[in-house]
Amino acid sequence: MYLFIYTAQKAHGISVIIENLVKAFAKEGINCSHITTLDGLSKDSLIIPFAVKEAVEVYERGYRPFAAFLCDAISLGYRNKFKFYLSIGHVFCYDFWYSIYGYLRYSRKEKFVLNMYENTIFVAQVDIDYLKQKYPRSGCNYICVPNGVPEVNNVLDHVPSDRLRLGILSPWESKQIIEESNWFIRKYYKRYYAKHPNTVLKLAGRGSKINQFQNQDGIEVLGEVEDLADFFANIDVFISSNPKGCGILNRVLDAFMYKVPVLGHEASFSGFPSSDDICYKFNNYSTFESALEYITANRTDAWKRVENAIEYTKENNNWERNYQKLVEILMKTI
User: Fold this and answer.
1) Which of 25, 174, 195, 244 fits a 20 to 30 Å CA distance from 147?
2) What's the rounded Cα separation, in Å, for the pair 310 and 306?
3) Are 324 and 27 in contact (CB under 8 A)?
4) 123 and 194 in one domain?
5) pTM of the prediction?
C-alpha cells in the first residue's frame, strides 16, 4: 500500500506537519510521500489531502474520500477575526473584509468535506466542538491530533536589559496575516508605549511587509532571524496577538520551548486546554496592561509558568507519540 499526502501549500507549519506524518507512517512500514499535484495518479491511490480546498479537489477528481487533514476549522478562524476586528473598530483593513468573504466561501466547502469524507483530522478539540455544533448532521469521524514541538537543546541564557522587550514572531507575507499583528501594534502597543517609553517591541519573521513598521517609535524590525535561540534570549515577554481562536499556533509552542513568558490574546490559546498556568492572557487593553505590569513585578511567577509550559508541551505536544496514535486510528479504517 502506498499513501500520498497532497497539498501545494508551502508554509513552514504545514511542511512540518507533513514531514512528521510521513515519518509516523514509515515507522509502521507504510510508504507515504508528499505530493503537490494529482496529475498522473491512478484512481485507486490513497490520498490524504491537507486543507479544505485540496480535500474538495481530491473528492471531485474521483479518489476515495478516506481522510482529510483539515488542521483548523477554517470558518471558525474567519468568524472570530471578523467579530474581533469589529469589536475594536479595526475595520478599515483588508483582513476584516476578507474574513467575511472567507467565512462565506469556506463554510460551504467545509460542510461539503465533512459530509463526504470518512475521517477528518484537526489539531484542536475546540475546532471539532465548533464544527459538530455548526454541522450536526455531518457523518465523518473527527480525529483530534495536536501539533508537536521538538525539544530545544540550544536555549540561551536570558540577556538582561534596562528596557522591557516584547517580541512578536510571525510571517509577514500576506495582507491577511499581517493584520493579525497590526491590530495589536496600532490599538494596544502604541498606547502602552506612550505611557511606558522604556519599552521596545521586536518584530521578527520572514516577509517583506514587515518593513512598513520600520522607523516607528518603540519598534525594532528584525526581519527573518537565523537563530530563534538568540531572538528569544533577547526578549522578556513573547506576544501572541492572533485572534483566530482555532488550531494551534506553532510560534506559541516555540516560545514555550525557548523558555520565554508568553502573553497573548485569549484566542491564541484556544488549542491549549487548561492553559491558565502556562501563559498570561488578555481580552482588552486594560487586561493587557495589567498583565504586563504583573509579569514585570512578579518574575518568580513568570518563570514558574515557563517551567509549567515546558512540561505541558512535553506531555501534550509530542510529535512521535501523537502521530503514532493518529496512524493507528487511520490504519483501522483503510
Assistant:
1) 174
2) 6
3) yes
4) no
5) 0.95
CA pair distance 132, 300, nearest whole angstrom = 41
2 torsion bin: left (phi>0), alpha (psi -120 to 50), beta (else)? beta
Going by the DSSP 8-state scheme, the letter that residue 144 receives in this structure is E
Q: How many domains does the chain have?
A: 2
195 shares its domain with 323: no
Q: What residue type is 163 in one-letter code? A: R
Domain that holds residue 202: 164-316
Report residue 156: phi and psi, to 5°: -90, 155
Q: What is the pLDDT of residues 243-295, one digit of tens each?
A: 999 999 999 999 999 999 999 999 999 999 988 999 999 999 999 999 999 99
Of 283, 287, 284, 240, nearest to 261 (Cα)? 240
Query: Collapsing DSSP states into helix, strand and coil, what is residue 56?
Result: helix
Calpha distance 249→257 (Å, rounded): 13
- 3 state SS of 278: coil
Residue 80: inside a domain: yes
Residue 144: per-residue pLDDT: 98
Residue 16 lies in a domain: yes
